[in-house]
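User: Reviewer 2 asked us to show a designed sequence for the structure in our supplementary figure. I'm pasting the structure tokens here. Could you produce the per-position amino acids so we can include them in the response letter?
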């Protein structure tokens, strides 16, 4: 029965009957759709120019698609037509790594790099309109009300209070410890995060607010963090500590999309590295997940470094 369906789906694809594909697969309960069916659905949605819905479908099988060049190609295509070029570039670069010299992939890579080199309006208005990356947008009005965060190496980033030293700060991690923690978490940590932890392994920054635009009201909201989890096990607020990533996910029912790297005051929510787009070994995005049910996921930044650079503090 399933083999007959797959043959039919391919025939519809060749006949450009893409809506037939969507209708047939959506009639199947979600829990019964496997990796191959979801990819058929995502491809059909791409062909119908329903790119946001296609991305949503592809992300549900991101783990299975990690080593599949077609999965990266197809989600990259959706990101390209959504004009989320940074995401598209990463997807097509991964597709090229898995299937070198594929002509279609190389063609898209050329187009994307050309698009990313074009000057944008934000480059001419950087003082009043901070650059938006894909779906992640820093609100325009934060420049007037917030100070930019110092770089971590400046010595003015961390507030080494008694609480921070007791709960967060550990000695710089060894390569062996990093590898062990990554194995326990089942995710590869971003290089920028590891480099930061080798200088100062976790702690409480002076600037603890990240601005986000409320898409419903247009107002600026702020995600506040208490501190940033370091790489280790001994201190409570470390990735593998007793109040670390996996324990928070298991205890509070946060979605298993990646790694918790920061906690809001009173544990009202967490900041997570989100690996759904590019797999466990890819470059994760940064999102905020509310503790309340349903656990809403709010995009913050396309990567860890951008998140750190975007932290701010209210001026008195």
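Assistant: Here is a per-position design you can include in the supplement:
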């Amino acid at each position: 029965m399933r083999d007959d369906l797959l043959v039919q789906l391919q025939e519809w694809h060749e006949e450009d009957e893409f809506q037939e594909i969507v209708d047939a697969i959506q009639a199947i309960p979600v829990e019964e759709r496997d990796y191959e069916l979801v990819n058929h659905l995502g491809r059909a949605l791409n062909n119908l120019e329903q790119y946001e819905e296609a991305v949503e479908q592809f992300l549900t099988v991101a783990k299975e698609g990690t080593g599949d060049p077609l999965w990266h190609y197809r989600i990259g295509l959706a990101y390209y037509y959504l004009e989320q070029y940074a995401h598209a570039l990463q997807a097509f670069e991964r597709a090229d790594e898995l299937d070198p010299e594929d002509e279609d992939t190389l063609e898209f890579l050329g187009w994307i790099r050309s698009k990313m080199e074009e000057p944008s309006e934000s480059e001419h208005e950087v003082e009043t309109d901070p650059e938006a990356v894909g779906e992640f947008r820093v609100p325009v009005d934060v420049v007037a009300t917030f100070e930019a965060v110092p770089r971590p190496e400046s010595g003015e980033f961390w507030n080494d209070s008694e609480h921070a030293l007791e709960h967060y700060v550990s000695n710089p991690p060894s390569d062996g410890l990093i590898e062990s923690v990554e194995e326990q978490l089942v995710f590869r940590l971003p290089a920028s995060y590891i480099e930061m932890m080798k200088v100062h392994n976790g702690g409480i920054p002076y600037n603890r607010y990240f601005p986000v635009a409320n898409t419903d009201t247009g107002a600026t909201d702020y995600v506040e963090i208490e501190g940033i989890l370091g790489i280790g096990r001994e201190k409570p607020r470390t990735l593998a500590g007793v109040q670390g990533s996996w324990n928070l996910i298991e205890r509070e029912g946060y979605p298993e999309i990646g790694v918790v790297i920061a906690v809001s005051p009173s544990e009202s929510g967490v900041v997570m590295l989100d690996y759904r787009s590019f797999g466990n070994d890819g470059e994760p995005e940064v999102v905020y997940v509310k503790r309340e049910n349903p656990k809403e996921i709010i995009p913050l930044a396309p990567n860890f470094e951008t998140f750190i650079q975007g932290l701010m503090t209210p001026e008195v």
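For the response letter, you might also mention the following. Confidence is low (pLDDT under 50) at residues 120-149. The longest strand covers residues 258-263.
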